[in-house]
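Follow-up to my earlier ticket, as requested here are the two runs.
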Amino acid sequence: MMDLTILQFLAPPFVASLVIAGIHAYLGVHVVERGVIFVDLSLAQIAAFGATIALLLPFSGGDPHAPSVYWVSLVFTFMGAGIFSMIRSRRARIPQEAIIGISYAVASAATILAMSKSTSEGEHLKDMLVGNILAVSWTEVFNTALLYAVIGTFHYVCRRKFLAITLDPVTAEREGVSIRFWDFLFYASFGFVVTRSVAIAGVLLVFCYLIVPSVAAMLYADRIGPRLAIGWTMGTVVSALGVYLSLILDLPTGATIVGTFGLVLVVMAAIRPLVQPGTRTSAAYETRQH
């Protein structure tokens, strides 16, 4: 049995992981449907690059938690959002995913180059990759939840436009919807989330919260509603299990949650033939084939 002190210590990171899982499971549905799987990694890396630049500037005082670091990181993320929204086109010669991948590689290299001028590059790189979610405070959890509630409300109000450009952009464009404008709003709002999440949980954990629940949900459901329910459930269970395992095994929390996501996904894929025997072709897939 865990005593009250340990439970109090684990409560903020656990609630933070639930808050991150809630918004990322929804955004992951869009990302997987669009086929831009690495957009989260790329935006997260761009955000990390912005944070690294901010740390090297005098006004940050070298404090990674300074407000200026967040705002500089957010500006870099908006720049990435603008680029990604401009390159999406059915007639483009270069696939959007290729540009996203290149952006990730360049941002990663630029971050390493910038960190080479810092005296604490090793620790900063570690925090950037796997984060330090155990250090999150209740104030950070509350502020993050408030921000994500605003972003979630925005997406709910504009859900028809966002779903239209994600699920059927050809029809949406034919009906007069500005794909680039709504794409920019999507990636900009996504940027708010990613910038905040990376500061708390790191690049790898944020990527897992975005992609793994959505991929797992696609194994069992075709419609958006059931996918979200499965994604949120998986995010909750994995968060609790990952935090608990990191405690009893004395392992880094972020990396443990990432590993737990991988194991749970493998288990869900393995038992799917037992739960849903036979091959079930989704309506969305059939629509694409025609």
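Run two:
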Amino acid sequence: MMEKERLTHARATTRRPSDTLLGRFYHDERGGLLILSLLLFLATLLIGGVAIDLMRYENERVRVQGAADRAVLAAAMMRQSPGSPEPEDIIRSYFQAEGLGHMVAAEGSIEVTNIGGAREVIITPQGQMQTLLMRLGGIDSLPIHVAAGASEELAEIKLEIVMVLDVSGSMADQERIENLRIAATDFVTEMLGDEEGDRVAITFVPYST
């Protein structure tokens, strides 16, 4: 009888694995969805971060491309005369005004070629854009590489004309825009139609804001 009581007491005092703290933690299924939610949140954050950085990259690339296009046009059209700036200086001044001077600081990023009566300007700005959230995936920066070129015949120009044409919403009326087309066409025909037409340069600048 005493032996049977001792066995019953031993079984009563022996803990099952599920009764221990580790066992209860192992068998407890509460909070499982929280872990999945955290993983999904991190994945969403990473995808959103990629989208944000790519949008920033595209905006920066467009800004650099715009500065490059304006710079090469100005450098190609600049008439060489004593005391006038060099095409390279013009290009660098455009980029410095945009806060992008470092992108044309490398040797070979600006090429100016004068052949006969023509000038050709080619620039290849290069730089890096620091990422904000893509660095969580190990990408600290994105390279920016653009190119722009322009050429201009260095012929003797007697008269330079800039036609600033309004194409804003105020010209939505069909009669107004048609009158503008007729007036611009007649003016250009008149200026280029005489014997001095080959010494006249006309530039069009449409604006909407």
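The only thing I checked on run two: The chain has a mean pLDDT of 81. Let me know what else you need.
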